[in-house]
Design brief:
Largest sheet of chain B: 2 strands, antiparallel
Oligomer: heterodimer
Number of strands of chain B: 2
CATH superfamily of the largest domain in chain A: MetI-like
Structural class of chain B: mainly alpha
Radius of gyration of chain B: 24 Å
Radius of gyration of chain A: 23 Å
CATH topology of chain B: MetI-like fold
Distance between the termini of chain A: 20 Å
Number of domains of chain A: 2
Number of strands of chain A: 0
CATH superfamily of chain B: MetI-like
Number of helices of chain B: 12
Shape of chain A: globular
Strand order of the largest sheet of chain B: 1-2
CATH class of chain B: Mainly Alpha
Strand content of chain A: under 5%
Strand content of chain B: under 5%
CATH topology of the largest domain in chain A: MetI-like fold
Helix content of chain B: 55-70%
Distance between the termini of chain B: 28 Å
CATH architecture of chain B: Orthogonal Bundle
Helix content of chain A: over 70%
Shape of chain B: globular
Number of domains of chain B: 1
Chain lengths: ~280, ~300
Amino acid sequence: MLKFTRFQKAIAIFFLTLLAFINLYPIGIMVLSSFKSTREIFMKPFNLPSVWRWQNYVSAWQRADFAVYFKNSILVTAISIAAILLVSSMAAYVIARFDFKGKRYIYLYLLAGLALPTRLAIIPIFLLMRSMLLLDKLSGLVIVYTAGGIAFSVFLLVNFFKKLPRDIEDSAMIDGAGPFRIYWKIDLPLLKPALVTVAMFNFIDVWNDFFFPLILLSSKAKKTIPLGLQAFFGEYTIEWDVLFAALNISVLPVLIVFLILSKQFIAGMTEGALK
Amino acid sequence: MRKKAYLLMLLPALLLYSLFVAYPFFSSLGLSFYDWPGIGPKKFIGFGNYRNILTGFMAPEFFRAAWHNVIFFIWSLVLSVVPGLFFAFLLAAGIKGTKFLKVIYFFPNTLAIVIVGFLWGLLLNPQWGLVNQLFKAVGLGFLAKPWLGDTKLALPTIIVVTAWRGLGFYILVYLAAIIGIDREMTEAARIDGATEMQIAGRIILPHLMPIIATTSMLKFIWTFNIFDIVYAMEGTQGGPAGSTDVLGTLFYRIAFGGLGSSQVGMGLGATVVTLIFLIVFPVSVFYVFIIEKRVERGE
C-alpha cells in the first residue's frame, strides 16, 4: 500500500471521481432517456425527463417479444450453469483429490481450454449441431455453453478443492463411504461459496453471449435477449425512446445479480486472474 | 477395478470438452483443406484455400482485417494497462469509498458487448447522439464528428468504447496485486528512506509485471477474436468502407454468409479460423504453460 500526502489524496479523489463519472454517465443517460419521448431525447438530451414515460417500457416489452427472449435466456442460462457446476465440480474433485496415471496430462488438456476461445471452433460446432438436429434448439446452446464453461470452472474449482481440509474426508473414507458419496455429501456443501463464484462467471458469460445464438439459432421464438435486442434495433431505428427502454430491460437482470453479489464477484474475478 | 471408480466422475467433463471443444478445433483444421459450401460433397484442394487467402483474391481483405486486429490489440493494451495501473495506484491510497468505486468501475464489464455497442451507437450518432451534442454545448463544436461514419475515426472509436467497458477489470486486478504485495517489503524500503514514488516504481511495479503479462496475453487472444462490438456498431461489413473490418467479421461473412459476402464457404471460413488460431496459438501455449507452472508451485 502507498502512503499519500493530503494534497496527493485530493488529486487521487479528483481522478477517481472523474473515472466514476465517465463510467456512470452513459449508463445514467441510458436510464433517463428511456423515460423521455424521442423528441425530448433529441432536443433536451441532458435534462431530466419532463414527464416520466413508463409507457416506453410497455411498448418495448410488447413489440420486441421480450417475454419470449427472457424465458429463453433464463432457461438456457439456468440449465447451462447447473450442468457446468455438476460436471466441473466432479472433475475438479477427482483432479484435486486423487492420484492416477496421466492425471497431469488430463489436467493440462483441460487447462488448454482456458486459452482457446470456443468461437474459433464454430464451424465444426455448427456442423455437429446440424447432424444432431440441434440447430435452432435451445438444448444445442446449452451443450455448447456447458462444454465451453468446463475449462475455466474446473480450473477455479480445483484451486478451491485444494484449500478444503481433508480430515473429514479421510474419516468418511474409513467409515466406508465411496468417492461419490464423499463428494456429494461432504465436499459440495463446503464448496458452496466457490460454486457461487463459478456460477456468477458463467452467468455473465452465458447470459450476455451473442455469438453462438447468432450462428446456431434462426427462429424468432428461440432468440435469447442479446440476439432479440439486435433484431429489435434493426427494426426500430428511429424510435429512440423504445430503443433505450429495450436496452434497460436487457440490462436489468444482470444489474440486479451484480448488485447483490458484487463483493463476491469482484473477489472471485480478481482471484481468478491473479492465479 | 472398483478402486478406480472415481474416474467415472471425470468422464462427463472430459467427454463434453473433447466433443464440443477439442474435437472441433482439429476438425476445423481438417476442413481448411477442402472446398465445401456446407452441403454436398467435399472437394480436397490441399492448400488452395490458404493460397486464396494469403496470396490470392482474398489477400487484400484478409490482411486489412488482420491489420485492424493488430491495431486493436496495441491500442487496447495501452488503454488498459496505462490507465489501469494509474487508477489502481490511486485506489491503493485507500481513500473512503474505495469499495463503492470498485463496484462502479467494474459494472460496465457485466454488460453484454452488444448492449455496450448499441448504447454507444446511439450516444455517438452524428446528429442526435449525446457525445456531439455535449461538444456543441460546451463550445467545442468542431469536435462534433461522425464518429462511426468516418473511415479514419471509426476504428479508434470502437477501441475506446471497448476500453470503456473493460478498464474496470484491469484496475481491480492490478489493485488486488498491489494489495497482495508483502507489506514488510514496502515498509522496509520506507524506513530506508525511499520515497513513495520509488516504492511504487521500483518495488510495486516489478511485482505487477507477471500479472500485467498474463492479462496482456489474454487480451491478445481475445482481440484476435473480437466480433460482437464491431457487429453491433458497424455491422457484418465492418463499415464504413471496411475500415473496421476485423478477422471475426470477415470470417462470419465467408462462413455464414452475411449480405454482400464475396464468397460463402465452410472450407474457406475454416481456413480463416485456422489462421487466427495460428496467430494466437503460441501465446495460448505460453499462457497455459505459465498457469500450469503456477499451479504446480501451488501444490
